[in-house]
Amino acid sequence: MQRFGWICFESPLAQEHNPLFSLLKNTTHSLKVQKIESESDDFQVLSINLEWRKGKANPFMSSIRAKLRTKAMSLNIIHDKDGLPKIILTEPTGSSAEVLLYGGQVISWKNERREELLFMSSKAFWKPPKAIRGGIPVCFPQFGNLGSLEQHGFARNRMWSLDNDPSPLPPANNQSSVDLVLKSTEEDLKTSPRGFELRLRICLSAGKLTLIPRVRNVDSKSFSFTFALRNYLSVSDISEVRVEGLETLDYLDNLMRKERFTEQADAITFDGEMDRVYLSTPTKIAIIDHEKKRTFELRKDGMPDSVVWNPWDKKAKAMPDLGDEDYKTMLCVDSAAIETPIILKPFEEWKGRQELSTVSSSYCSGQLDPRQFVMLHMEIKRIKKQTALLYFVVFLSFFAPSFASHGGSGWPGKSANIIPRQQLSGNKKLRLAVPQKSGWFSELVNINRNLQTNATIISGFCIDVFRAAIEEFDYQVDYEFIPFVNATGQCNGTYTELIDQIFFQNYDGAVGDVTITENRSLHVDFTLPYTEVGVGMISGYQVLPFFVSNSMWIFLKPLTTDLLLSSAAFLS
Ligand SMILES: O=P(O)(O)OC[C@H]1O[C@H](O)[C@H](O)[C@@H](O)[C@@H]1O
């Protein structure tokens, strides 16, 4: 059992009423444990020889009994049913993680409600030297087949040890973190001819699992490696999952001979096998599980790439350690350093970091996820300005069907640039981009191609509102709707790119459910959201048709008692 602790003296020598105490206070001392007298889960009682020194005077020797108190519960290494040693990490809110010495692999991470957050294959092999399919395997010193070593390197099928000297990290001295180490063997020096030390700190805290990998070159020659923490995330149904943060990035497609492409989708969704190495990814990626109403947030540092992998049905069937249906409930989103291998000079060290946490699904990349909310509307004629502003901002950042047009900056309704009459009338025909929806909220904008007549029909709530608004003008406005689609009929980029196209004057405006964000409104003007002046509110998603609630009072739920009372006061 590993012990960490500090010493509280039982010897009367160390007590303040002892005349020797003041004498000893400013001494230095060295200490040698003679024997462990007794031991319990929380304490060890030790016989200690102490040598006290003060200046140049002769040392003062003392033999005392000391009680060593473990600062927190000790790390427990237990053997699981397959005989593999594992460490269980726990923390006060009740979440837990299990870490195998084999592979240095996290194999379980449960939240405070004891729900498993990591995927583990129903047919995983639990026998070395096979890798274990699930949890968080460490791919080192090679990712995939990018080298002469076995697939994903050997770290995931080696027995690691507890690292008792994790310097320069402060010692992990509680039961919610563990330091592991894997050192190169003689054998490794033959196949991958460099000496290394791979360390991994795994820390569990409320709602968060942090992994800090470090690699030290202990050789006299440079050492180069690729690396990945492969996160097998547990998801409800892969078809309901969306990954945000990788849009517009370049990726190497492992299913297309590692060819380089640029991501076109607004967010990554899954309807078939995927095996991509996204390059130079942001430090934060969101994996949104709509069905479970859970969002994983992956934050990383020192690992610029991210692999997104799901084998889908055919490959799953061909994999002996993956259940035929398992692909539906897993998704790998890795923190990785692949495109540019890490090169360490002799005795240099590399350090990475990844934090996995879960947040409520209402959150995605800083905006609310429209699929999880129903927007309600309540008219309040007079309300404190501040409160109104607060709700207004919530409303805007949620979802604001809008017309965007170029030429100004500022929040809706505050634009200094009112589109001049001559710009809207005259000879100019406004070119208005209409985004292609990928299945959601097609009630708002819908681009339909009639295959027989080849005509494109553009319809939906936003279009109707736009037409109605234009009819209100007392002069003629010519316009045409232009679908913002690519050659394959899909949306020709993200909504931000659509806004950019307006800014670059490739369109005169856009009509659609473009979310108003601060960033976008720096480039274009937005209309006010299509509501009467009032307060927009959000409430948890109901299993009811869009915009319909089963309770007329549900709109009261997001309001605090205070706000309700003050609203009532202002309304009366
Ligand atoms: O089966 P494993 O060795 O764990 O690898 C799982 C997958 O990892 C990577 O994403 C590779 O590109 C795939 O080709 C491989 O199938």
UniProtKB/TrEMBL annotation:
<keyword id="KW-0675">Receptor</keyword>
<keyword id="KW-0406">Ion transport</keyword>
<feature type="domain" description="Ionotropic glutamate receptor L-glutamate and glycine-binding">
    <location>
        <begin position="448"/>
        <end position="538"/>
    </location>
</feature>
<dbReference type="InterPro" id="IPR014718">
    <property type="entry name" value="GH-type_carb-bd"/>
</dbReference>
<dbReference type="GO" id="GO:0005737">
    <property type="term" value="C:cytoplasm"/>
</dbReference>
<dbReference type="Pfam" id="PF01263">
    <property type="entry name" value="Aldose_epim"/>
</dbReference>
<dbReference type="InterPro" id="IPR008183">
    <property type="entry name" value="Aldose_1/G6P_1-epimerase"/>
</dbReference>
<dbReference type="GO" id="GO:0030246">
    <property type="term" value="F:carbohydrate binding"/>
</dbReference>
<dbReference type="GO" id="GO:0016020">
    <property type="term" value="C:membrane"/>
</dbReference>
<dbReference type="InterPro" id="IPR019594">
    <property type="entry name" value="Glu/Gly-bd"/>
</dbReference>
<keyword id="KW-0407">Ion channel</keyword>
<keyword id="KW-1133">Transmembrane helix</keyword>
<keyword id="KW-0472">Membrane</keyword>
<keyword id="KW-1071">Ligand-gated ion channel</keyword>
<dbReference type="GO" id="GO:0015276">
    <property type="term" value="F:ligand-gated monoatomic ion channel activity"/>
</dbReference>
<dbReference type="GO" id="GO:0047938">
    <property type="term" value="F:glucose-6-phosphate 1-epimerase activity"/>
</dbReference>
<dbReference type="InterPro" id="IPR011013">
    <property type="entry name" value="Gal_mutarotase_sf_dom"/>
</dbReference>
<protein>
    <recommendedName>
        <fullName>glucose-6-phosphate 1-epimerase</fullName>
        <ecNumber>5.1.3.15</ecNumber>
    </recommendedName>
</protein>
<dbReference type="InterPro" id="IPR025532">
    <property type="entry name" value="G6P_1-epimerase"/>
</dbReference>
<keyword id="KW-0813">Transport</keyword>
<comment type="similarity">
    <text>Belongs to the glucose-6-phosphate 1-epimerase family.</text>
</comment>
<keyword id="KW-0325">Glycoprotein</keyword>
<dbReference type="GO" id="GO:0005975">
    <property type="term" value="P:carbohydrate metabolic process"/>
</dbReference>
<keyword id="KW-0413">Isomerase</keyword>
<keyword id="KW-0812">Transmembrane</keyword>
<dbReference type="Pfam" id="PF10613">
    <property type="entry name" value="Lig_chan-Glu_bd"/>
</dbReference>
